[in-house]
Amino acid sequence: MSLKIHLSADTHSNKEIVVIQFDYSTEIVNRLKQNFPARWSQTKNCWWIARKDFDYRKFKEVFSTIAEIILPPQKQKDKSTDQLLPADYLEKLIRVRYSESTIKTYSKYFKDFQSAFTDQNLDELTSTDINNYILGLIEKQKMSVSQQNQRINAIKFYYEKVLGREKLYFAVDRPKKEKSLPNVLSKNEIAAMINSTNNIKHKSLIALIYSCGLRRCEAINMELKDIDSSRMLIKIRAGKGNKDRYVQLANSTLLLLRVYYKNYSPLKWVFEGPNNKPYSAKSISNVVKTAAQRAGLKKRVHPHILRHSFATHHLEQGTDLRYIQEWLGHGSSKTTEIYTHVSNKDFIKFKNPIDGLLEDT
Asked: Which residues form a coiled coil (predicted)?
């Protein structure tokens, strides 16, 4: 074929995209416009489709009769290149309103699963096939228990939700959940992070995440209209599990936010990046890590440790566990109870035997 279409991955306006390049052809342009949500980029001088909207199988059907589709060399060696997600898989994830993070994780892990069975019909695989696949990953990749469960869930989602088969159609072995405890910072360490941060935007961000026990994505998606200063509440919209909840707005946090608003005048999102877009996850992580370094903390500090610290400090000052559960947005009290193992509320009541021994020597 004389016509060639080159596909490659790129980003545009903070979106993952598929770049479509070819020598000008009216036929290709017309088919692109008629069959896909393709757009022309003046800056990149090419056509593109958002990665989430790109259906490679359909793309091949539309263009394989008139042009040769060329993929990047490194991708051609990858078995999963041609193994796109089943059309209903991504649609179902979006329809049931899974978070962007979950959709990304499930999609990646299911594509890995597809690439391992390129010569077999997925609908005919047995539980033994799937268990052997998971076992192979454990042995080769030494993946964590959490990742193992995520991979299993991604596979089960296809058979149970997309195909509509009975629950537990495949008796996939589940690992025992690791009983690891969350790391927390002391109140003094939190204060040091906030006080050592001079940028009012960054200072307000750290104070808000900590004082409200927010997940990083909740800070990213928070809009100005969600802050109700008259009632001293903040509405968290579509948190984990797509559940709304209210959290307490601390007076000291409100004062910081007012100074920040005066200086930056955000339009829609509480914390905005370039072009008034929501602050990125990476930017928030960098803000928190930089604050910890300035405060001289030697621990590994990340945004979620502020949430763990919020819950632990509340427990230590006697706040009822039920309120903490509600503020954190936990569906089960068992999830919140993990902080009882981290809190020093009861530990400090008791004298360690060695103190008595050393005092007597």
From this structure: none
